[in-house]
Design brief:
The structure is a single chain. By secondary structure, this protein is α/β, with parallel strands linked by helices. It has 3 helices and 8 strands; from the N terminus they run ββαβααβββββ. The protein folds into 2 domains: 33 residues, no CATH class; 94 residues, no CATH class. Strands 3-6-5-4-7-8 form a 6-stranded mixed sheet. It has a two-stranded antiparallel ribbon with strand order 1-2. The chain is globular and about 30 Å long.
């Protein structure tokens, strides 16, 4: 079965030009993609940027890591976090808590100086044997 969808290219933060018409692409549809199914089950979305970073940095996530990430987002949400740094072992994720979207992902080799800006909280996602227990609130 072939399904057609449209992608609207537009401005991001006032940058870029509006196309004169939408770009139409056809794709073969076999049901929801793995990513869509995984997102629905886990409640965590990965932005295109985060997906590209995971792939280019060869970061692999298993279901336990994503469950821990989801639990950590729950904790940040309960404490009023909006933009959180979530640490899962040696992996760092910047997450938009309200939309439950991972914005970017880094491993220990890509952290540079280890400085993260424009976040309001940090959550350490502990292994499944002990629940996510640490939340550092940076709002003061």
């Amino acid at each position: 079965m072939t399904d057609s969808f449209q992608v609207q290219l537009g401005r991001v933060n006032g940058v870029g030009e509006q196309p004169s018409k939408p770009v139409t692409t056809s794709k073969s549809v076999q049901g929801p993609s793995f990513a869509e199914t995984f997102e629905n089950v886990q409640g965590v979305r990965f932005s295109n940027h985060a997906q590209n970073r995971l792939q280019s940095r060869e970061i692999s996530l298993n279901s336990e890591n994503v469950n821990r990430l989801s639990d950590a987002i729950d904790k940040a949400e309960k404490r009023g976090g909006k933009s959180s740094l979530v640490m899962v072992d040696d992996l760092a994720f910047i997450v938009n808590v309200q939309s439950r979207t991972v914005v970017t992902a880094l491993d220990k080799n890509q952290r540079g100086e280890g400085v993260f800006t424009q976040i309001d909280s940090v959550v350490f996602a502990d292994p499944a044997s002990s629940s996510t227990k640490s939340l550092v609130d940076l709002k003061g």
